[in-house]
Write a structure and sequence with these properties.
Number of helices: 19
Largest sheet: 5 strands, antiparallel
Radius of gyration: 23 Å
Strand order of the largest sheet: 2-8-9-7-6
Strand content: 5-15%
Oligomer: single chain
Mean pLDDT: 95
Shape: globular
Number of strands: 11
């Protein structure tokens, strides 16, 4: 029974009502002394919520899960998943709850979700809690990705619980309030297939089509069209990750959304020096989810989604497999198109030409060979367009190789049908709109999270302010654009569970 409090949201529960087999009603563990640490006022406004009311004591009680407001039906969602290639038929929200759904000011349905809110029936031996650092990390990462224009879940708030969490040491605990287009995952379909069979998969697919891909319902084969739409959104998403050097770190099938949003920022990080084999995650011992593997893994995950949809695509298994396989095989071309378009924008190139593939591939090989910082290099190219190659050249230990590549690139910029010299300032500006100055640099992130865990939120707030405008170079922020100093050493990330 909900407790009457001042209304913060007008909750709806379409997922719980329509698919009761895929969740378990549950309540958050009580937090003894909740304290609001960060509130995303922009996102609150987007959700039609009053930031002042959310910040008040009653609001914080709702955000941490101590109070269930009228209209909310908190549940732990069920899903399965391939974790590092091995199938687990029952995973689910072990430390999280879906509070309910809200229609935002644009009429879009959004999930409100608590993470770190205590054990659920899916906890599998974990304590269900979350340390403060990883929750703040997810908040920062989500805001950074949003500012970069990459589809992502976002955090509305982080609330300290007032209780410590036992990990290697005792750490302050926290709850993150996550906002998502939905939490339906590839793993949700896998769970439905294993535990409910084709009819439950059909109901789930109908729900996902209506919520995320409504045009698929108009197709001759809606379920095949749905598979194609999910595949296309993921091809676009992974290309965007690759174009900014983002490494998710744990691309299990339960961490791939049907909506096409980035979800579950655990051991994620951004590239510094370019190397496709880069792995930061401490749990990815086999480098399955290395930076350069992400497109291939996305296609592998989508194959698992396709398997669950086969009985819906056609009654004849062979026909269904053939149709789904054809869609699946289109992933590589779709991804390559999105990625190539993005690389053209980063390099200021227009009108795709046959020689462009070699120009791009040779550049990446050069960056790898000389260990050049990925973000710094692309940002330094716009001055080169305007006749000042020194910033880019300075990034290379052996600059002659860069000069040779740069000559080819400048010739391509000046080729017939390309920009005239008078248009080059516009080209440079366009490049600056897609090549960020500021990303969540690993050393800056660790410094801010360390200070926050010790009680000082000022560095974190400063970092959030910098990352909110990643393409606008601003005086006094040079340290946020610089790679980590050598003293930072090799970097490893951790899951945060």
């Amino acid at each position: 029974m909900g407790v009457a409090v001042r209304p913060l949201f007008a909750f709806e529960n379409s997922y719980v009502d329509g698919l009761p087999e895929l969740s378990v009603a549950w309540r958050a563990a009580r937090s003894p002394a909740p304290r609001l640490l960060v509130l995303n006022e922009e996102l609150a406004g987007e959700l039609g919520a009053d930031a002042e009311a959310l910040s008040a004591a009653d609001g914080v009680e709702v955000l941490v899960g101590n109070v269930v407001p009228d209209g909310a039906s908190p549940v732990a969602q069920a899903y399965a998943g391939h974790q590092f290639g091995g199938f687990v038929p029952r995973l689910g929200d072990g430390r999280a709850l879906l509070l309910g759904e809200v229609l935002d000011v644009h009429g879009r349905r959004r999930d409100l979700h608590l993470k770190g809110s205590g054990r659920t029936p899916f906890a599998r031996g974990g304590d269900g809690l979350a340390p403060l650092g990883p929750m703040l990390r997810e908040y920062v990462m989500g805001e950074a990705m949003h500012a970069l224009g990459i589809p992502t879940t976002r955090a509305l708030a982080v609330v300290a619980t007032g209780a410590d969490v036992a990990r290697e040491t005792m750490l302050p605990g926290a709850v993150l309030v996550r906002v998502a287009a939905s939490h339906v995952r590839v793993g949700t379909f896998q769970y439905a297939a294993v535990h409910g069979g084709p009819e439950l998969v059909r109901r789930l697919a109908d729900y996902a089509i209506a919520r995320h891909h409504p045009r698929a319902a108009e197709a001759a084969n809606p379920y095949l069209a749905f598979f194609e739409r999910v595949l296309d959104t993921q091809a676009s998403l992974i290309a965007r990750w690759m174009l900014v050097g983002f490494i998710h770190g744990v691309m299990n099938t339960d961490n791939m959304t049907i909506s096409g949003e980035t979800i579950d920022y655990g051991p994620c990080a951004f590239l510094d020096s370019y190397d496709p084999a880069t792995v930061f995650s401490s749990i990815d011992e086999g480098a399955r989810y290395a930076y350069g593997n992400q497109p291939r893994i996305a296609q592998w995950n989508l194959a698992r989604l396709g398997e669950t949809l086969l009985p819906l695509i056609d009654d004849d298994t062979d026909t269904a497999i053939s149709a789904a396989t054809e869609v699946l095989h289109s992933f590589a071309d779709r991804y390559r198109r999105y990625w190539t378009d993005g690389m053209h924008a980063k390099l200021g190139l227009k009108n795709d030409r046959p020689e462009d593939g070699a120009l791009i591939d040779d550049l990446l090989a050069l960056l790898h060979a000389q260990g050049v910082d990925f973000t710094s290099f692309f940002r330094a190219l716009s001055p080169a367009v305007l006749g000042s190659p020194a910033p880019a050249r300075s990034l290379f230990a052996e600059p002659d190789a860069f000069e040779a590549w740069s000559g080819r690139w400048r010739a391509r910029l000046a080729s017939p049908g390309a920009d005239l010299p008078a248009d080059l300032p516009a080209t440079a500006k366009a490049m600056d709109r897609v090549n960020p100055v500021y990303i969540p640099r690993n050393h800056q992130m660790e410094s801010a999270l360390g200070a926050a865990t010790a009680g000082d939120l000022a560095p974190l707030r400063r970092l959030l302010d910098v990352l909110a405008r990643p393409f606008d170079e601003r005086p006094g922020l040079e340290s946020y654009a610089a790679p980590a100093p050598a003293s930072f050493g090799a970097y490893r990330t951790f899951c945060g569970t």
